[in-house]
Amino acid sequence: MKAYRASILSFATDREPGPCAALEEDGLLVVGPDASGRQRVQASGPYRMIKALFPAVPIEHFPGRVIAPGFIDMHNHFAQTNVIGSPADGLLPWLERFTFPEEQRFSSAQYSADAARFFLDELLRNGVTTALSFATCSTESVDALFCEAQQRRMRLISGLCLMDRHAPAGVLNRAAPDGSRNACEQSLLDSEALLQRWHGADRLGYAITPRFAPSCSEEQLRGAGYLAQRYPEAWIQSHVAENRDEIAWARQLFPGSASYLATYADFGLLRRRAVYAHCIHIDDQDRTLMRDSGAVAAVSPTSNLFLGSGFFDYATADRIGLQYGLASDVGGGTSFSPFHTMLAAYYVAREGQSKAGLSLSPQQLWWQHTAGAASALGLDGVIGNLQPGCEADFVVLNPKATPLLARRSAQAGNLDELLFAMIVLGDDRLIERTVISQAEDALFTIERP
Ligand SMILES: [Zn+2]
Q: For an engineered disulfide with 344, which of 188, 213, 219, 302 has Cβ 3.0 to 4.6 Å away?
């Protein structure tokens, strides 16, 4: 076992109106293996009290630092790291001009492994300890990402992108080399084989991954729905209602469905553990459909602002009870940093569709990227928090990482002011250390030089 002394940030286990975070000013976090050897939080609380309960445990002290749960990124694309910040007129031109040519390169196992290494290290450097990530349509890309995540003992969820039409041949799913199966059949067989290989291996999870309805034939969506029913513990990830051109296209391709979102329901792809990125241009009927099915939204504000897609409607989502969490959506999103994502979410809520203009509290923003995201993924009590029993994924934050942060955080009169100073002024420099729960005794850490 090992203990860490610092200020400790944690969250109430249920989401309630009003403040949900608590900061233990002089806290002690005790971490140790469970029966299966996985590192979990054993205790967390005031230093004096916890120290007395664990007198023999070695303590590492971080004066002036804040230990907080590792961030959870509910939606991103590991194969788009190289196209981050590519200028385009909107989603569809951006895909054609930059994203598809880059994703084509991931048919190489070597290229995929190099990209996966950089991507995962970049997540960890930014304090992100869990991600729900799209791979590409090549099985090589999926294996590469899972292999690298497994080596880092990260909790990561991914899956083979399903896309058998409406994109250049090089990025679509491939038919069997001997011609015995078409791309749709092969993609579904590959998905099931990858799911069986990776879902539940160490801390990895599989997500059935139709890219978005317009990119999938009806047969492929039907097959994805079949897998979703057969493997109820696997996740589903896709996109919906990001952009008006995309919606018009989806409506044209699936005229029998009541809405773009309803298309997914019609193929059995709305259920708990189904995560839909964006959910911007949806109505109350759609929100109700999501809520009732247990599906959740991955809110991707830097991406939505960058591509001019629109604003997630927080007030209406809350009114209806649609669950959501925050996501970078790299490379449509502009940053790996959870601080940039939280700040963009603040702007979106202020200026978005809701007439009142919502002011999201700093605690609410932080919760959406940690405990709230865990809950949306069906992983509450497992990650995203530092309550006893949670897996020991956490970050050590230095609120004095830059001159301006040091000056501003010194003036913070309460927890909200401290959190908001970090959200507004923070970036990867705030993350002094990222610690990953590991099956062995040692903890994997990334440390700043
Ligand atoms: Zn996306």
A: 302
Residue 228 Cα, ligand 1 centroid: separation in angstroms? Answer: 20
How many residues are there in the chain?
449
Q: Are 260 and 290 in contact (CB under 8 A)?
A: no
CA 363 – ligand 1 centroid, Å: 25
Indicate the number of domains in the chain: 2
First to last CA, the chain: 25
pLDDT tens digits for the chain (449 residues)?
999 999 999 998 765 555 589 999 999 999 999 988 889 999 999 999 999 999 999 999 999 999 999 999 999 999 999 999 998 888 888 889 999 999 999 999 999 999 999 999 999 999 999 999 999 999 999 999 999 999 999 999 999 999 999 999 999 999 999 999 999 999 999 999 999 999 999 999 999 999 999 999 999 999 999 999 999 999 999 999 999 999 999 999 999 999 999 999 999 999 999 999 999 999 999 999 999 999 999 999 999 999 889 999 999 999 999 999 999 999 999 999 999 999 999 999 988 765 667 789 999 999 999 999 999 999 999 999 999 999 999 999 999 999 999 999 999 999 999 999 999 999 999 999 999 987 554 455 666 65
Closest Cα to residue 446, out of 146, 151, 126, 40? Answer: 126
Alpha-carbon 5 to chain mean position: 28
Asked if residue 93 belongs to a domain, the reply is: yes
**Ligand 1: centre distance to CA 33 (Å):** 35
168 shares its domain with 313: yes
Q: Distance from the CA of 57 to the center of ligand 1, in angstroms?
A: 43
Q: Is residue 198 part of a domain?
A: yes
Residue 249 and residue 213: Cα distance in Å, rounded? Answer: 9
CATH number assigned to the domain comprising residue 239? 3.20.20.140
Q: How far is CA 348 from CA 43, 303, 306, 318, in A?
A: 37, 11, 12, 15
Q: Are residues 50 and 133 in the same domain?
A: no
Q: What is the DSSP string of 228-287?
A: HHH-TTSEEEEEES--HHHHHHHHHH-TTSSSHHHHHHHTT--STTEEEEE--S--HHHH
Two structure tokens written together for 66: 């804040």
Look up residue 126 and give its two tokens: 């930014």
- Which among 329, 352, 375 is the end of a domain? 352
What is the residue range of 408's domain? Answer: 2-70+386-447
Based on the fold, state whether residues 6 and 105 are members of the same structural domain: no
Strands 394-397 and 204-210: unpaired
How far away, in angstroms, is 382 Cα from ligand 1 center?
25
Which candidate, 22, 109, 4, places its Cα nearest to that of 419? 22
Distance, CA of 295 to CA of 317 (rounded, Å): 13
